[in-house]
């Protein structure tokens, strides 16, 4: 069953609620908490607080409707970003080489070309981070006129699967300057549908008015008007599957499209912000020393100002020089506030640990406790909670990358040169946590000598920054040296005999 867009609001139901949640958690991750937390507005008067990316500059694309309040700033200590980025850091460090599961053949060069064009190692961090924030990330297969094939990651709010499971829509909005100081909005849709084993891919365009979708427009006319290269509709027989997919986070029977990793920590994050903001307001109001003077001295100064200026008041400047009493000493006194902040800081510390526990993030990953280990195993046990979480996410991305590259081979067989065997590639994953080089080398050599790991894998893991040519040369050197060592330079002489 296809999705109807014309004469309806975008995004379409039932995905509108999911997209709204994604936008909420993106603001939480980016630190724009004054836009989502009610108590952030209670520290404002008539001014709106705008978080700045750097002093003196507003965030790009965001206009300040009011001046920034300098009297009471809402303080943001954004631990929510850490929750999303720790798994991305660990997986980014772990992802290694991606290659075809063959020694020779056209698959080897094709997979190498797909990996070179798709750049999974460069984009895995952003993909995992967005996956944690949105709870869903999608991908699709691309091929240009020159024959280059690759896959790309897409935001979760651009992927709308059909209810029957036989299709999906990839959507995005394009804006164009209409020459009258405004922008025209258009909804682009790439629709993939299966009919039996045949795959149909359509390119649709709709006119938009704000969030309302209007009539469908001709795709080729739209492409000509805006100088776009939009592929024509295509039917690929015998494909048997969609050339797109998605990766979910913490999916359940009630939430099959996944849930954000930040879903249970937003209220804790607000309480952290509010506690620190409240303390900063109190410090600002009561942290400065205040001058206390006797009533008689205040009346004297006030009467003098009454005679000179026509009103009773006392200024700080009026008391810079005061009289000295031989019995009481200097009459004015400064009152200083003895702040008791220990309990407040302990409360914030407890909230942070609650947040990390709920989000399955190790305290050591947040830098709140010592994360040093004498060995890699000791370090692993300190980070075990974050590593277990990252391992589960890694397994999902491992399957997604393999599926994406296999789908690239299917597309090449359908409209390209063909002759490829569409099988999953091999993805090498390394350790998520750093180890000393000596400890790592000892482990790799032990695996090789134990016969459970090949020489190529051993060299590749011991030298992850080497090129393919350097790895091949090192393997050849090792094999040549082993061949020389197997020769016996000692010649056995025949025994002496007496004739």
From TrEMBL:
Stated name of the protein: Phage portal protein, SPP1 Gp6-like
């Amino acid at each position: 069953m296809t999705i109807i867009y014309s004469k309806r609001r975008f995004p379409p139901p039932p995905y509108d609620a999911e997209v709204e949640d994604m936008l909420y958690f993106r603001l939480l991750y980016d630190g724009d908490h004054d836009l989502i937390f009610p108590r952030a507005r209670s520290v404002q008067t008539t001014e709106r607080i705008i978080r700045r990316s750097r002093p003196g500059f507003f965030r790009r694309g965001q206009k300040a409707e009011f001046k920034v309040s300098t009297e009471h700033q809402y303080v943001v200590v954004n631990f929510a970003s850490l929750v999303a980025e720790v798994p991305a850091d660990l997986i980014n460090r772990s992802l290694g080489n991606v290659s075809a599961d063959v020694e020779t053949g056209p698959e080897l060069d094709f997979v190498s070309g797909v990996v070179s064009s798709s750049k999974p190692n460069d984009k895995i961090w952003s993909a995992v981070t967005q996956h944690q924030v949105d709870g869903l990330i999608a991908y699709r297969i691309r091929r240009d006129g020159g024959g280059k094939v690759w896959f790309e990651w897409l935001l979760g709010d651009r992927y709308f699967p059909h209810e029957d499971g036989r299709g999906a829509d990839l959507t995005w909005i394009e804006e164009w300057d209409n020459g009258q100081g405004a922008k025209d909005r258009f909804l682009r849709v790439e629709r993939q549908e299966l009919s039996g084993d045949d795959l149909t891919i359509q390119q649709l365009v709709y006119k938009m008015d704000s969030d309302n979708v209007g009539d469908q427009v001709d795709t080729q006319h739209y492409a000509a008007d805006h100088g776009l290269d939009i592929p024509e509709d295509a039917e690929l027989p015998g494909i048997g599957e969609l050339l797109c997919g998605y990766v979910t986070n913490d999916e359940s029977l009630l939430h099959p499209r996944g849930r954000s990793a930040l879903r249970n920590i937003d209220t804790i994050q607000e309480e952290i912000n509010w506690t620190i903001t409240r303390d900063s307001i109190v410090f600002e109001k009561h942290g400065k020393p205040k001058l206390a003077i006797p009533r008689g001295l205040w009346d004297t100064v006030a009467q003098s100002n009454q005679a000179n200026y026509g009103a009773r008041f006392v200024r700080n400047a009026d008391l810079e020089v005061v009289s000295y009493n031989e019995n009481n000493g200097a009459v004015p006194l400064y009152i200083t506030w003895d702040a008791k902040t220990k309990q407040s800081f302990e409360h914030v510390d407890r909230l942070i640990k609650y947040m990390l526990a709920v989000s399955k993030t190790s305290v050591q990953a947040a830098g709140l406790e010592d994360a040093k280990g004498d060995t890699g195993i000791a370090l692993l046990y300190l980070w075990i909670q974050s590593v277990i979480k990252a391992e589960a996410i890694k397994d999902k991305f491992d399957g997604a990358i393999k599926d994406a590259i296999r789908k690239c081979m299917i597309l090449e067989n359908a409209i390209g040169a063909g002759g490829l065997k569409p099988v999953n590639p091999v993805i090498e994953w390394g350790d998520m946590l750093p180890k000393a080089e000596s400890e790592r080398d000892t482990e790799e050599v032990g695996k090789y000598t134990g016969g459970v790991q090949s020489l190529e894998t051993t060299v590749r893991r011991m030298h992850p920054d080497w090129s393919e040519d350097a790895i091949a040369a090192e393997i050849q050197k090792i094999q040549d040296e082993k061949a020389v060592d197997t020769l016996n330079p000692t010649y056995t002489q025949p025994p002496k005999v007496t004739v």
